[in-house]
Write a sequence for this structure.
């Protein structure tokens, strides 16, 4: 079983849950950058960006 977000519950459940960790700080900074760009250029082409994730293997794998 695998979860998503790697929150504290994933570490404390029994067995500890394998999860996909997301870079929330990077995602927030990117969101702000894209939002400010959209405000400055509302007719600009829509951009798609992908942030790296990582698999955190615990005992549920």
């Amino acid at each position: 079983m695998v979860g998503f977000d790697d929150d504290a519950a994933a570490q404390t459940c029994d067995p500890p849950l394998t999860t996909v960790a997301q870079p929330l700080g990077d995602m927030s900074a990117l969101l702000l950058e894209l939002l400010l760009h959209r405000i400055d250029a509302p007719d600009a082409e829509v951009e798609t960006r992908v942030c790296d994730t990582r698999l955190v293997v615990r005992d549920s794998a």
In short: Residues 2-56 form one domain. Residues 16 and 59 are 5 Å apart (CA to CA). Helices lie at 8-12, 24-40.
